[in-house]
Amino acid sequence: MAEEQKKGLEGVVIADTRLSRVQGDIGKLIYGGYDILDLADRTSFEEVIHLLWYGKLPNAAELDELRRTLAAEMPIPNALIAAMKAFPTAAHPMAVLRTAVSTLGMYDPEAEDGSPEANQRKAIRLTAKIPTIIAAWARIRAGQEPVAPRADLGIAANFVYMLHNAEPNPTEVSAIDVYLVLHADHGMNASTFTSRVVTSTDGDMYSAVTAAIGSLKGPKHGGANEAAMRMFAEVSQAESVDKWFQEEVKGKGRRIMGIGHRVYKALDPRAIVLSKHAAALCQRNNRCELYNVAKRLADLAAADEYFIERKLYPNVDYYSAIVLDAVGIATDMMTPMFAMSRISGWSAHIIEQWADNRLIRPRGNYVGPQDLKWVPLAERQ
Ligand SMILES: CC(C)(COP(=O)(O)OP(=O)(O)OC[C@H]1O[C@@H](n2cnc3c(N)ncnc32)[C@H](O)[C@@H]1OP(=O)(O)O)[C@@H](O)C(=O)NCCC(=O)NCCS
Q1: How far, in Å, CA of 81 to CA of 223, rounded?
Q2: DSSP-derived secondary structure for 343-368
Q3: Rounded-to-integer distance, Cα 88 and Cα 95, Å
Q4: What is the CATH number of domain 225-326?
Q5: Does any ligand 1 atom lie closer than 6 A to the CB of residue 66?
Q6: Does residue 259 line the site of ligand 1, with CB under 6 A?
Q7: Which CATH class is domain 16-222+331-355?
């Protein structure tokens, strides 16, 4: 008899968490008690990091202290930069990030220390160094020297500075900061679950984060922003959307990337915030082709019986692709941007898992043959 099975672990609760809550039926997301719609545009990424790690929004002195601690940890080892210079320039930036984070672990003397204090220090290091790694790779693959982080800048501003080696543009910085706030944590999503599975073996934080990056890379998860951007570029102009929708989606059954969600059966609140930013940035840049494509495609899906019946709405990746494109982030760099934010949530979940751990070890329902008779090699067909 088949054992009880939850395909895709849908609806399965694996842990208590104080970090975030996704209410998919009403399209609500809270971080540590605060509605994401109250945090976005009002709270910096560093404040959200403090909320996730320490359970409260910081006061001014606490925020200042966190900013200084993060800034001190932003530089990456020269040996890592040298290793990255040897990577093939055509490598996917998520593959580079996955390998760089794994490499980073070998340079951290506390890598194997699972104490709460060491884990907190590693959370700071990883959150501080991942933006430096991503910016360094953008430059290395373009044949440029990486730029060292500045001690006076926060995460979003430092990232923009290191990417362009120029005084960061405030519009770009605030768009990236909002993006980082909105991606920091999201319940027991696939990459967070991955990080908890590794941690549940008493595995170290670098292994857990390396695995989480691998999980985030897939187009059904974090890779959807890149896939959505490629789809918008394929359609290329608003006038082509209706035909594309009929031929590709209705005709060939292609999925619209950035639409649909395992938990949200209403509009993802992050998509509401990001669609406003996408609209504002396109007006500001006077470059609205891809925003118009995205908007028209979302409208067609919203009016289509198939999407209505299945409660398929734009998720966080849909308009975030337009926002990141508008501030000059290359399409294949979009998923690393997701990781740059989600490291705050992953590390908080890893610390939470360590505090109340039990090996995560589900079962499979065996459906292969049974009771076969063993035959010596020489007699096998
Ligand atoms: C996110 C996602 C993986 C959720 O998957 P899930 O909960 O396992 O849901 P399913 O894949 O079983 O989809 C349920 C139904 O909706 C359809 N569907 C889901 N997403 C769709 C999309 N983006 N476009 C068209 N149809 C879609 C499926 O074909 C399925 O239809 P069926 O019941 O007739 O078979 C899925 O919606 C998806 O692939 N979306 C596009 C990728 C994406 O944006 N991912 C980022 C998520 S934040």
Answers
A1: 25
A2: HHHHHHHHHHHHHT-----------S
A3: 11
A4: 1.10.230.10
A5: no
A6: yes
A7: mainly alpha
CA of 23 to the centre of ligand 1 (A): 18
Closest CA to ligand 1's atom 6: 262
The pTM is what?
0.95
Which positions are catalytic? Answer: 261, 317
C-beta separation of 126 from 53 below 8 A: no
User: CB within 8 A of 125, min separation 6: which ones?
Assistant: 73, 104, 108
In this structure, which residue's CA is closest to atom 36 in ligand 1? Answer: 260
* CA distance to 162, 192, 258, 317, per residue, from 226 (Å): 22, 20, 9, 8
Per-residue pLDDT tens over the stretch 256-301: 999 999 999 999 999 999 999 999 999 999 999 999 999 999 999 9
User: Which structure tokens are listed for 129?
Assistant: 């160094």
Residues 6 or more apart whose CB falls under 8 angstroms from that of 122 comprise: 108, 110, 111, 205, 206, 347
Measuring from atom 19 of ligand 1, which residue has the nearest CA? 260
Locate 117 and state its tokens: 């204090």
3-state secondary structure of 165: coil
Place of tokens 């896939």: 227
State how far the alpha carbon of 379 is from the alpha carbons of 53, 147, 369, 374, 375, in Å.
Answer: 62, 65, 20, 10, 6
Cβ(177)–Cβ(156) below 8 Å:
yes
Q: Ligand 1 centroid to 261 CA: how many Å?
A: 6
pLDDT tens-digit map of 196-228: 999 999 999 999 999 999 999 999 999 999 999
CA of 257 to the centre of ligand 1 (A): 9
